[in-house]
Amino acid sequence: MSFNTSGYEPAINVVKLSKCYQLYQHPRDRLKQFLWPHRWWGSRQYYRELWALNDIDLTIMPGEVVGIVGQNGSGKSTLLQLICGTSTPTYGEVQVNGRIAALLELGAGFNPEFTGRENVMMSAAIMGLNQVEIAERIEQIIDFSGVRDFIDQPVKTYSSGMYVRLAFSVAINVDPDILIIDEALSVGDGAFARKSFTRIMQMRDAGKTILFCSHSLFQVESLCARAIWLNKGKMILDGESAQVVSAYQSFLDQNTANPAAETYFAGKNVPIPHKKQPSGNAHLEKVQLIADDACTPHADIASGQSNILINIGFASDPALPCPNIAMTLHAKDGRIITSTATWEDQFAIQRSPDGSGQLCLRLERLPLLKGEYLVNIYLLCERGLHLYDSAEAIATLQVTQAGRLQGYFSIPHQWENNTIIQND
């Protein structure tokens, strides 16, 4: 959704923003630096500098949904902390127009000795609500969190899930102008995850300004019209999300030759455990690979000859819209080779009145070239954004070929001789 932002002040304006951390090798060095900070006392520098952000300029207008991508240590979280005011810049300036709700370290400001109700009131006041507004919304916040039975108990008695759900409920129900999300679109499990995701989508559709930081390039491209790419504290690219995601993915592919990526996908070929009938949620119940009429999780197939059939079963709360299915095919190093999804193909999944469904994905005469590939299956919401369940590396494809072609795919092609006409 796009909005006419002409005539509006920026929701967020960042000018020449830099953040430097002082890293000390030993605790005693911090004391030395404090005691001898001045040159005329023969001081020296007992720390090394780490510039988490360096000279960042960024303007975000009201109603924009902006994604932030970058590797760990690129400065993403530091930028969000500076915008939220939980950290101060070394140089530069941050201007924010509007009330911010930040889904960063949920519950970080809770006092464990206070009750849930007291922490809700305190957190809402810190976020800018007056006493009348807090009184109007506190019951809504408690109902959304689902911890009403424990709301008057000290939060130190809460489970980690209850703690996070209450903190999320406060952040999402203070009617912010700007929503800042670090890594997670939803919190908790099951029905609460779905409910929290739905609330965030409602805020996006209502024209709230959203700053979304995530390693999920799929979610960034799906949710955000604009994205920025940070690397080692510098802004590499700022533009349309598809353009930025494509450039960043190419960068990752060039630097993906590391054992960690391979380990991530190893050892996950396990049966999907039986789960109870979902309430407010959905889950996969079966993923079965059939290669050349043989049911096996480890298939030996011939390039351009073998047929693959993937049977998928799921269960869902029938009160929810029908979910979607996606498949990704990965190389051993973790690169996504290709993907397909029911919503992209406009395929309408049929499900039973109890919310269960069965479907299959056919891949005929698979044109993969030699190598080992991994199959992932995902169950997502009706928008194809919120992830209900996944089966990663559920099947392995070992592809052999007769020729010496290189790469991942053999694409359709045709050779022709051109007739050369000689002029006299």
From TrEMBL:
**SMART domains (UniProt xref):** AAA (SM00382)
Q: What is the species of this protein?
A: Nitrosomonas ureae
Please report the name of this protein according to its UniProt entry.
Answer: Lipopolysaccharide transport system ATP-binding protein
Locate the ABC transporter domain: which residues? Answer: 29-257
Short name of any one Pfam family annotated for the protein: Wzt_C
Kindly give the InterPro entries that the UniProt entry links to this protein: AAA+_ATPase, ABC_transporter-like_ATP-bd, ABC_transpr_TagH-like, Bact_Polysacc_Export_ATP-bd, P-loop_NTPase, Wzt_C
In the record, the note on similarity to other proteins reads:
Belongs to the ABC transporter superfamily.
* Example of a GO cellular component annotation carried by this entry: membrane
| UniProt keyword annotations, A-Z | ATP-binding, Cell membrane, Membrane, Nucleotide-binding, Transport
Q: Which GO terms describe its molecular function?
A: ABC-type transporter activity; ATP binding; ATP hydrolysis activity
Residue ranges annotated as coiled coil are none
